């Protein structure tokens, strides 16, 4: 049975939180695999996506309005800021009506369906954040399968755009499932921060 968006979202919150905990206060200015973004920008972008998801769970119909640069969304200590957002998202998930239909940029969808991209963001950007400090972050096979079930049916012009994924990258020989996945999202699987 395929994973549900709410399960992917909750597991993604846990993985992203564990990755945030790997960064020290001096690490937030490190470059990330996302061109032009520091680790703090990755955090700010994900925080905006989780805030969007949390508003959906509360019954709102939020607009996607990320800040530029994304790191400017982060207030105070990055880890503390993140944990407050993650805790709020987990709390709202516990009683949310995931079958409620809302208007979205992709038309009328259920809250559960609308959580799909914020949920995927957590895994993709946990990898980005981990790589900013040279750490390996593995994306579970069942999440990779979920990502393909969400993304593959969409028109390529919607997927391969600056707002979603860059052009697919060829994975290295003998690539792991996670490396193949991040290559599919347009990332270089062997990206590493400069020494």
Q: What does this protein structure show overall?
A:
The protein has 195 residues and is mostly helical. The chain has a domain at 5-136: Four Helix Bundle (Hemerythrin (Met), subunit A). It is 49% helix and 4% strand. The protein contains eight helices and two strands. Helix 1 (5-20) packs antiparallel against helix 3 and helix 2 (39-58) packs antiparallel against helix 5 (116-132). The longest helix is centred in the first third of the chain and has 20 residues, at 39-58. The mean pLDDT is 90.
Helix and strand arrangement:
Blueprint: H1 5-20, H2 39-58, H3 78-93, E1 101-104, E2 107-110, H4 111-114, H5 116-132, H6 141-151, H7 156-159, H8 177-184
Antiparallel strand pairs: 1-2
Helix pairs in contact: 1-3, 1-5, 2-3, 2-5
CATH fold assignment of the domain at 5-136: Four Helix Bundle (Hemerythrin (Met), subunit A)
Portion of residues in helices?
40-55%
The total count of helices amounts to: 8
Global geometry: globular
User: Order of strands across the biggest sheet?
Assistant: 1-2
Low-confidence stretches: none
Q: How far apart, in Å, are the first and last alpha carbons? A: 43 Å
Strand content: under 5%
Return the string of H and E elements.
HHHEEHHHHH
CATH class of the domain at 5-136: Mainly Alpha
Report mean pLDDT, rounded to a whole number.
Answer: 90
Largest β sheet strand count, sense and barrel closure: 2 strands, antiparallel
Which value, in Å, is the CA radius of gyration? 16 Å
**What is the β-strand count?**
2
**Structural class label:** mainly alpha
CATH homolog superfamily of the domain at 5-136: dinb family like domain
- Going by CATH, the architecture of the domain at 5-136 would be Up-down Bundle
